[in-house]
């Protein structure tokens, strides 16, 4: 008999009919040999530890039957290979009790018996290469179209894809978002819906213009038509790159026919909607301050802004009041019977934007409040609010030489309007009126605030109501320009806002007007693209009036959108509703115009001298529409300009393009989408624009359901960003771990909170993927092929209980999926998986491996496994499509070409369990209670200590006499049923329930005590099923059950 080739032992590893050692087996790539000896060294490394023909351990010379039967064991290889699958057989052990019984070298080999053990071509470890092959097969066979044809005529489910911007590579947020969308789409398809989901991209706007300028130089804009074509090519380039990265996720989206905002048909649809809004009187031109980004060189809408707190310099300065104003104030004070100083007075004012001082047009003050006169440290007497004087004294006592308490309350702000007061502008010396302003406050500054109507909406409101002068001396690039009426100093011309502030303060100091400068934290508005501060700048802009009524909707767009918002379902929670409600209810105008070329144009022709629009604007607009449908928006640059008119150089806000997606989606069914899934930042962008524009056409919401999600952060809680470079490389991640692992991680997160990505979370997702694959693999290894579809006439109670638990898990899964709580849906399935692995699978292994082929119990468990596999694979495939499709294709004789052609069976209410199921559940609960005792017993057995589990104490009349109860000492088959509940343990019951030494007791079930002790009878171990029995074994070393299970004609090998 050949000895072990490792030379460490003389154990015979083959049966006597094998005459020579086979050559060493070649291990496939990635195969890991993990079998180790008790003394820590490897043994029999030429033979795979995972195959059924295991070498014997040098330490114990025995076979670990649990590992052979597919149980959890660290020695099971991570990967198997078809080349390593030998004949399904198993060594036997000596029938003596001790598991460490030695076999003498050269002793006759123990016989081998046939077992039902299969090795499916589906491994526990995720395989990225297999995912790539499946992806290629799906593309080659047109799987998405096949599923669409299968669902033809079923209820439609339209998932509208909120378009990512076609600029740069796909980032982590894109992949997370597409994964969540795909889970929704696959869930709807599994429920039998005909899913429509076309991938979308936003392809207009400034970032693409900047990219083209960077690639072709700033002179690229000199030829507008060529520049726009270059922008179109740039967008197409990035769209293709992003689509390739997103496709690796296995999306069921239509990537071959994506919807792009730059498609000529969609550009024409947006232009048509814009024409309707203009004709309805909702698109209006306004000359007013708007948020302006010098980096964008364009106005910004509220949805393009972010807010932060930054430090700014608070500047206090004094300006002389006109002599007439000083006399008027003194007369009014004397009339009030109060003291007031004679002679010249200054006004103490303040600002946080010194660069606007050149455009000063007045000073605002509160409507009410007490005034006083204080003397500055330099001797200048200034008028200010009493409340402001007291605060400034606390902050800087050296600011005043005399606080002027004797003048407190001599005048009130309410009296100033009747006096028509004025002061000199600080830099230009032009006369500037003092005006009551609702936004001015005694609690800030000095009580008098500098007014520059071109650079603030509140100041501009005074320009409209009181005729305050409007001078805008800042250009599109954020630099100062000389626009009069007073010549601007050379130091200010062309200066940036920061430099202009410094120069203005220096001019105040030179004139002796600068009083105090101090840093102050103020809320600053930022451009969401450039993360730089923006400012208000007066310019002519086209805007959508959100409160103006129109035909069929007297309440206006905002109010109708608010009503539609109330009818929209938000998932997984309602957090996104509040900001949307706030923005809809507080915004009066939506500024649409942008000073950009690449986008849907505002096709207006304006007269060169009068500035009036062309009288045939509507006809010209409709003519342009016909050209845009074929040529795209480039047609606007190519069309001729009527004589005497100037063509508009403005385009529409990109959120208008994306927000009109429902209007231009007739090929998708148009109208109302069933679902949208976007990040929470879209509340100010795509969600808002979609609700407002849809309100123009319908009182219904544009989407039935809206799912929002938060963002991915790193281990330190920092948001992933390109600038920080803290996001992982998705291509490397997919190549190493596969897309299923990423999808499983994404769906295991609570998307309502920030989602943390770390090495730990990746390891957990990888382990979860292995657990799910192992779960599917057990089904494949033990169920019949797909041709066996007939339900057995009777099912075991355990199998019925398993299927009922699966139905209950499915009901919870549906509720969680409908609510967008994917992590909870996975949890429902994971709970079933854990229960099945610990109890259903564990207690079914003997039947699966050892039962006769004609056994009714075997037919029952195999059919139940088939039902479980199909249902679990379909539910899990929403999250792990690659693994489930691979498992389905590994099922011999699978009935369809793809798992995704199946639809989930109709939902059924989970029925109440009958008496048999309740009894089975009771038995399992009793078993779980005893599990700690059982594990300690098994550990002692593994160490060679002869112990047994003792149930009952002989004849006990108080024990129920239920013959089907394995705890019943009167049951003649009780020991067999107890062995089935506690495999691997030596069990004694009834009249054999005696032990020489009892030292540990477990829970009492139905009055039956359970103890651990040394057996009084000699145990025997079956050479086939490895169970311990008290009765003598049948020849040749088999228990009575195995003899009965052996099929006719099968003899020991």
UniProtKB/TrEMBL annotation:
One of its GO terms (biological process) is isoleucyl-tRNA aminoacylation. It is an enzyme of class 6 (ligase). Residues 135-758 form the Aminoacyl-tRNA synthetase class Ia domain. Its EC number is 6.1.1.5. GO terms for cellular component: cytosol. Catalyzes the attachment of isoleucine to tRNA(Ile). As IleRS can inadvertently accommodate and process structurally similar amino acids such as valine, to avoid such errors it has two additional distinct tRNA(Ile)-dependent editing activities. One activity is designated as 'pretransfer' editing and involves the hydrolysis of activated Val-AMP. The other activity is designated 'posttransfer' editing and involves deacylation of mischarged Val-tRNA(Ile). This is isoleucine--tRNA ligase.
